[in-house]
Amino acid sequence: MAEGTYVSELEEGALVEATFAVQRKRRRRTRNGDPFLSLELADRTGRVPAVVWNDVNVLGARFDEGDTVRVLGRVESYDGRPQIAIRDVERLEQGDALELVPGARRDAETLDGMVEFLAAEIHDPGLSALSARFLENGRFRERFRTAPASEQHHSYAGGLLEHTVAVAALCREAGQMHPRLNGDLLLAAALLHDVGRTETFRQGVTIAVSDEGRLIGHVLAGVRMIDSVAREVGLDEPVLLPLLGAVAGHHGPLEGRRLETPEAVCLYQANQLDARVAESL
Fold it and tell me: Rounded to whole angstroms, how far apart are CA atoms 187 and 191?
């Protein structure tokens, strides 16, 4: 982020010159009928409301919801909370979502390293090759690093990476505690269970569902992605099918069926545990 004032540092009366992501933009009118813009701005430390009172048409035409902007303004108090009264605003090239919105509670580089470590714990050659093919894809890796996990839990840039590491770590421990579980299958399913999220959210600093997310959802999108890559690496059908079954059922049984394998049951419970805990924080 460019030099300036972070949301967490805002104090009433302070002059602000800083870079933010526009999380919300609404055109409204005062009681006198004059137009103004109501905004929500964000950086990695938090969110803050903002308003444009003057030159609404000129300034409003410079940026849209989801853009990265450079803001000049002053902090005022509204309903006991800080609010930025904007004097000038300019759109910038899209910045790093991890820098521009409140993000993962854990460092992204640390989480990336944990993904590498967990993937290296998969010893089955086919499942190891499958996981590696995903992680070696630069486009996938970048979206995996910056996407939210959902609109309900881990709903921030980096949330998908944070949630995946947590679920995979839980499944790894369960596999060690219960030797009858297929640990490689379970760990691979945990690492890949939400890969569809990389395609079902639009890339950027706002949480917006893509056409794929709206039409088929992240579970089916993920199953399609895994099946396609599995064919590329030649993963055997007896291994692929239970993997797809576990991923397809990580939010519960499909079509009224029960979860068919203990690995699917374990993944479902680990996913539920991390999601519910995150929602309560």
Answer: 6
pLDDT tens for each residue of 172-217: 999 999 989 999 999 999 999 999 999 988 766 666 677 887 888 9
1 in a structural domain: no
The values of phi and psi at residue 173, to 5°, are -65, -40
Each as own residue / partner, the long-range contacts of residues 217-222 (CB below 8 Å, 24 or more positions apart, any chain) are 218/194, 219/247, 219/248, 219/250, 219/251, 220/196, 221/196, 222/192, 222/193, 222/194, 222/195, 222/196, 222/197, 222/247
The two three-digit tokens of residue 240, written as one number: 């692929």
Q: Which domain holds residue 70?
A: 7-97
Count structural domains, the chain: 2
- What pTM, to 2 d.p., does this model score? 0.73
Q: Is the domain of 235 the same as that of 214?
A: yes
Cα–Cα nearest to 21, from 89, 81, 88: 89
Residues 273 and 136 in one domain: yes
